[in-house]
Amino acid sequence: MKSMKITLGDLLGSGSRAITRYTGTLLAVFVVQTIVMLAAMFATAMVLANAFAHLPIWDDAVDGDLVSLVVCLKFARGNFLACSSIAFGAILLWSLASWFLAGGVYGVLAQRPEGRAETARTFGASGAATYLTYARLALCAVPGWLLAMLVFALCSGFALQKVQYALTVSDLVGPLLLAIGPALLVMHVMMTVVDYARVELTLRHDSHEPGVIATYLRTLGFVLRRPLTLVHSGLGWLVFVAITLGYGYLAHNRPMYGATGAITLFVIRSGVSLARMAIRFGVLAGQVDLGGSRPLPPRRVEVKAPPKNAG
Amino acid sequence: MLGRTCLAGLALTACSSGHGPARPQHLPPLDKVPALRGGGAARSPRIANYKLDAKLDPSSHMITATETLTWTNTGASQVDMLPFHLYMNAFKNEDSLFMRTTHGEMRGAHATDSGWGWIQIDSIQIGGVERATAISYPDDRDRTVANLPLQQPVQPGQTIEINFKFTEQLPEVFARSGYKGEFNLVGQWFPKIGVRVGTPGAEHWECQPHSANTEFFADFGVYDVTLTVPNTQVVAATGVLVAASDVPGGLRTLTYHAEDVHDFVWMADPYMVTKSGKATLEDGSTVIVRVVYRPEQESFAARHLQAAIGAIEKFSADFVPYPWSIMTVVDPPPDAASGAGGMEYPTLVTTAGDSVLARPGVRVPEFVTVHEVGHNWFQGMLASNEPVEAWMDEGVNEWADSHVMAELYGARSSVIDWEGFTAEYGALSETATEDPANIPSPIATAAFQFVDNAAYGEQSYPGTNRALTTLERTVGTSKFMAAMKAYAKQWAFKHPTGRDLFAALEKELGENLDWYFSPVFEQVGGMRLRVRSAECRPTHPPRGVFGDGTQKKIVTDTDAPTSGAWNCDVFVQNTGVIHVPVDIELDFADGSTQREQWDDHGERAWHELTALHSSRLVGVRLDPDNKISLDVPIEHQYRLEGDGAASLRAGARIASWAQTLMQLVGP
């Protein structure tokens, strides 16, 4: 077991190296996501065209006329509900698929295969090996999400009246932070715990066959004792949000980015999504490095393979 | 620890809104102006005149008062009973008609378990004779109307004087009148006599009990009101301040005088400040405009002041000049706004809309002020019977507000002009409301007889706005505005009915409008205008077999080729009950258009257009100039060939948002 002091700089370096070294893996996962997104796009387009193909008012609505948009929403509530369901279905499908994809990414980042064939084999084997484990981990994480919701309910209850009667932005900022800040913090901790638990389950799967619940609880302690884990993943989310808001700012009132042409929209927004996915990929790489530096879990089985340590 | 963190943060934010203890206020300066702008003769018959003397205890929110009512029988029949509104009893208990019909909720504000209100008559004297025990209540569960039988009838032309003593508890405000914290809005607070209506010789009393959707109806008169309050209170009231003095015990007496009004309201609050301005009318005379507000609402007070000044100037120019010397706008504290805000009284209105979301350019505060000030015309001067014909003031005012907002803030951005988003009030209000064809109560329904509160709101406000807007655009805006101005001049300081409005419009517009008024205001069903079918076929000489025997000839497509022209048939239908002239425009592939009008006043529910044209028909537009507000316009434009490009763009946007969420849950 190595004893090493890993810094934030090391984790950021791991991330950038992983992105350049395993660009193909990143792009492969992105392509799968894009396929799901395209399927959702064409399905919603068909549902909307069914209602509006012959009605020019819909063109005005899509191009930003608020009154036309409200009229169309009221006219075809069922169609818009169907579009929401399609989007929700795509997100749900992706959630289920991501257990495999995350397992594959963690496996590649941990084992560092060389060459496309080896990388693909490692990706598939790791994803398949950890799929059900990640599914059980998702169930383990439910109490954490419930805790976040409880915190949100409590804090927003305290702050509700202040928000309701706020007259200026400064009146609003304090109560809003009070309402959502603690819940966001709890959510961030829970998401980081899940990430590091996945790392542990991937790294120790063959050598230790760790239990899911025990891994989750040990990882909770690890994350709370190592603030670096929260800072690193928090930085990743901040950049994720900054990219999103930055695109929103650039697209605002600029029809070339926001309003004209499905192909143009698709290309520009795909670029934004790829940038965000690259950030997540880099964060996962750092997590594999830091997770690999943890003490081994106590339970041991007959060693089938040597423990996987990063670095 | 988390709980303590939350509490600490809350404490910090809570501390920022305190006002400290109430302090004695300077004696307010008198309004050295007459109650009527420019003084002069009475504008109304002054049937019901009130002298009131009231004392407020702000700690208990109780009022003790005396009232002298002088009422004149201007009818042709004698009167042997006087009915009075005791509106404050609407808040007495859950048995009141008001509480039963509102379920203790109005416009998002809720009644509280401890904040009941009531009015108790301690004494009624006529000619020195005590008559309090003679009072009866038509509905003993609901004591918002009390009847007082007279020992001597009041003959036509006679005047009677009645003296009251009463005690009143203000409720915690959720429906116009009451207190919230240290803010007191005292409205509908004194015994108020009903109105004699009907044909001469057959008059009857109009004095409806107070329910969820009914507002108010009263005669014009003169009000002299003396208010005694602690000297820590800032007071605003109807009319002009004619006397002010401090009295022992830390109290202050303020006397207000108002002429040719039909109500008196007042506000008392220890923390309010005032901002003033002047509205200038077309004849050069001015109206003092004041906004009374709490200091933390300073930025909104400036907006309300500008809106009020603009509204007085525009309404005066468009209809009749504002007749009084002063207009006061009370901006309630945020926690009282949903209960006390957004209400009209002669010369004093309460506004609302102050919120962090109402950024400059999101003109909700301005709109509320314009709307309430506008009520000083529609209901304040043109004093229609609100319980029976709510649309006459609410809906007509909504229509007028659309014009005034457009004049003040621009036609396309009258209510929203923010971050590139613009919206005109009328169009936005139409989109936010229900399709008129789906509402089972017509516009001209008594307020207390609508199927539900939602139908009352939809028909009395935007429904009437749509109806008047459609008529206006059909006959022409300048003609219609001139007709409404004539109506306002004819009926100011009287009690117009819907029939009076229709008669005035028919007279000014010079045509019988029964084909419009009856279905639009008195029937259910709305309009359902759409393109039923549209198709084009290439033209050619007739093909087939012609002639008999030896002269039989077969004409084929080679013999009779297409001529290059198109024969187009369009069927338009209206399956609603309302039929107005509809402009129909056909758009052809070569860019040309052809327009005609369908105007049969409802004889048939469909109309056919045919066109022989050199290029194909590509689209049909119904009502291309947007004259018709009575129908949902979704199907007013139709293209023959389907086009999915916009749907694909929308699909790309929706999928992109879904992808953002996928990236939050995925690797």
Question: Explain this structure to me?
Answer:
The complex is a heterodimer of chains A (311) and B (667). In chain A, 82% of the residues lie in helices and 0% in strands. Chain A has 13 helices and no strands. The termini of chain A are close together. The mean pLDDT of chain A is 88. With 667 residues, chain B is an alpha+beta fold. Chain B is built from twelve helices and 35 strands. In chain B, the strands form ten sheets. Chain B has an eight-stranded mixed sheet, with no helix packed on it. A five-stranded mixed sheet of chain B has the order 20-21-22-24-23, with helices on one face. Chain B is elongated and about 120 Å long. Chains A and B meet through helix 2, helix 3, helix 4, helix 5 and helix 7 of A and helix 1, helix 7, strand 35 and helix 12 of B.
Features:
heterodimer; A: 311 residues; mainly alpha; globular; B: 667 residues; alpha+beta; Immunoglobulin-like; 3 domains
Number of helices of chain A: 13
Mean pLDDT of chain A: 88
Which ranges of chain A are low-confidence, i.e. pLDDT below 50, for 5 or more consecutive residues?
none
Quick one: how many beta strands of chain A? Answer: 0
Structural class, judged by helices and strands of chain B? alpha+beta
- Specify the overall morphology of chain B: elongated
Query: Oligomerization state of this entry?
Result: heterodimer
Order of helices and strands of chain A: HHHHHHHHHHHHH
C-alpha-based Rg of chain B, rounded: 30 Å
